[in-house]
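for the record, two folds in this file. i put them one after another cuz i was lazy. first one right below, seq on top, structure tokens after. the second one comes after a little note so u can tell where it starts
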Amino acid sequence: MERKIKLIHPAIDIIFYFVVCFTLVVAVFVSILYPNVILEQGLSHRIFYLHVPVAWVALYGPLLSFVFSLIYFLKKDLLWDRLAFTANQLAFVFAIGVLFSGPIWAYSAWGVPWDKTDARLQSFFILCISLLSYFIFRYLVPSRKKKAILSAYLSVLCAVSAVLTWGAIRWIENPGNHPGSVLGKGGMDSDMKQTMWLGVLAYHFLFLFLFLLSNRNEKIQELKNTLRSELN
């Protein structure tokens, strides 16, 4: 059976790679050198410029997966299942980054690395558990089509968890020590806002680059499995 695989020109990959590297390096150095330091927290406050952009991306991933899963339900094309899986993969990686960077910031701000009464921290932990459950159940189902159907339903659960995590500090009356939305009025000087938005741009570029690479890898693995089954 003849298969046509669309390949992206290597120059595009190289250009995108350098754009991602450049924006990340600039974002890191700007976050270290440019914004003023909050005296109560010291230099550890600079983890904020990594923590917040990474958290945003971690919340976008399950929502993208949910959209891809809905399209899969409509079209029954495994392409959309693969895209949903890729989005959840990266969401889990970035969510783990949030769980590691959050305690560093929390310790400097609150004096404890993990506040069990904080709604945002607990909801993010639940999001990680939801994503982990998605991967476990997906791995346990051998049939490719059944795997896609189950994964699509689980993507809904992960998306709901992401929305609840986003709303934890907005909808709960006493959400804990976690600060409110960074997009609220006041609260940040111009140098902090500029640095934060630069970080948001850089980590979104990173997400997109990893998304393309991961999806390409999944596609190659599926082609290998298909060819192997046909040869056997």
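(here's the note) second protein begins now
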Amino acid sequence: MLPVPGAALRERRWRPSAPLDVVLTLSPHRRGGGDPAWRRTPDGAIWRTSRTPEGPGTLRVTASGDEVRGQAWGPGSGWLLETLPSLLGADDDVAGFAAMLARLTRSHDSRHARAAAFVAGLAGRATGLRIGRSLRVFEALAPAVLEQKVVGREAWRAWRFLLRRYGEPAPGPAPEGMYVVPPPEVWRAIPSWDWHRAGAEAVRARTIVNAARHAEKLERTTTTTAEASAEADRLLRALPGIGVWTSAEVRQRAHGDPDAPSVGDFHLPGIVGYALTGRKTDDDGMLELLEPFRGHRHRVVRLIELSGVRPPARGPRMAPRDYRAF
């Protein structure tokens, strides 16, 4: 595999301090099948594009034994390799989570002890999972807004259309059809008819366009430490059209927040309730069940989602709508 002309290859090798599953850790950044910014190739490599503070870049990540190899192309290649450990969860407090589970399993409250033992079993089957930080807020925000109150296929279709039309081809020898997310100023200039062609109605379009005006301020929230996610939550939810669910989805990916559960998700409370108690619940019930795990509530939800435990289906799936026909 050779880089295309004008896109010099840069490389970094990194050894994580604990077992790491690259696919599990990076999969939250994938927005459905055919995502122009995320690809897994038959050789097992994960490809991602990003618009970094230094410009567009393409990243290829592979793992062999206890070593991760990152290869990058484009103006943003140096930044992508510098932040590769953060993307793969080097800052994730896995040891703190393990200590929490150990303490809870010894709890005098039998409900907490049973739930912790169940979650510990899930964690033992996903030892390589990390909550990584992309450090790119707007790149996580735009697709999250597209996913508001619609089924995934509908949102992913819009994401593909907009990236292919307004993004730029990925630097380097990326798989065919990969593009870099457009910069905020391009999102602000997308005409109404292309939002319509993408299948995104005016409300979601306005939310993204308005957020793009504040992108620079949002990106600065990744430069602090433990307080970064809380500050990002405050700024995000001050923007029209962005509520608790969208804020959590952004902070999970951009800030690597292990305690940002997606409250407001249509399916999630039922899944979490069924996994931990055998009964479906609502958002308030989910938060009550997750309270003993405060500090790692998103991580617990992620483990439950990966487990495949689901309540019995009792009706047809919600069909995707097509705003292009309206």
